[in-house]
Amino acid sequence: MPRFAPHPDRRPAVVSGASSGIGAATARALAGLGHPVALGARRARVCADIAAEIRADGGEAVALPLDVADEDSVKAFTAAAEDAIGAAEIVVSSAGDLSADRIHDLDSAAFLAQVQVHLVGAHRLVSHLVPGMVARGRGDVVFVSSDVVRAPRTRMGAYVAAKNGVEGMARALQMELEGTGVRASIVRPGPTSTNMGLNWDPDVTGEVLEEWVKWGLARHSSFLRPSDVASAVAAVVGAPRGAHLSLVEVQPEAPLEQR
Ligand SMILES: NC(=O)c1ccc[n+]([C@@H]2O[C@H](COP(=O)([O-])OP(=O)(O)OC[C@H]3O[C@@H](n4cnc5c(N)ncnc54)[C@H](OP(=O)(O)O)[C@@H]3O)[C@@H](O)[C@H]2O)c1
User: Fold this and answer.
1) Which atom of ligand 1 is nearest to 223's Cα?
2) Who lines ligand 1 at CB under 6 A?
3) By its UniProt entry, which CDD domains does this protein fall under (predicted)?
4) What are the tens digits of pLDDT across the range 186-215?
5) What is the domain partition of the chain in residue ranges?
């Protein structure tokens, strides 16, 4: 008798923020491993194109509109996703955005908007999908956090606060889920080449990078690819039952030095 029943053959995966970057790469990676995937983001049309590509490659995928800042949207998304691909065995919370403001220049509404998307948005997915996982006695919830939790950066204070909230929630959830068979995990990427930050004014981007260098951050010029982070998510959810990759930080490898 094994200590744990193995993962079921069919493990549907729900991915938020799947229209771009890490979420899109994760949906593709999980589909490539045979998981049916439900892709959610506000740009449902973009998710639909990615889902069509996945299906053309032989995978199973549906695209559904999702705004994690809106409770009704999350409720409708999670219900429609489970109707379409079956009860969620995997949830990946990757939706997010980022403004380049100093904390004292942000008004409270803008601060709250970051917390809504990153922290409350992640909790909304948990509240709608994790009770079913607990009832079934298995499942994986992955929070895409950020290395800013370990090393805060200037000009993203609301984001830093929200991601600290995400990891605090995830840590408490790990304790509450202990013994239920449901694994909550944190994947903490370093700098990754996605659409995040591309909407910043180029002058502001220059200033921000100088500040990061001043604070000992941005030590080399390499970025991760979204697929690198997706590989980490796939490893986390693919870990055999009985093993839990509770926190995985992924950093870009520095360029090779000429010797
Ligand atoms: N890029 C990095 O260097 C880096 C580093 C560490 C952690 N991260 C984290 O990685 C995650 C993914 O970011 P990314 O780098 O892949 O950026 P990205 O390419 O900009 O993707 C962000 C995704 O989040 C979605 N999104 C934003 N607001 C949403 C909302 N209210 N409801 C639903 N979806 C929403 C976007 O889709 P729509 O606009 O279509 O809604 C998009 O699919 C984020 O949690 C981010 O904090 C990124």
Assistant:
1) 3
2) 16-23, 41-43, 66-69, 94-97, 117, 144, 146, 189, 191-192, 194-196, 226
3) SDR_c
4) 999 999 999 998 888 889 888 988 998 899
5) 13-249
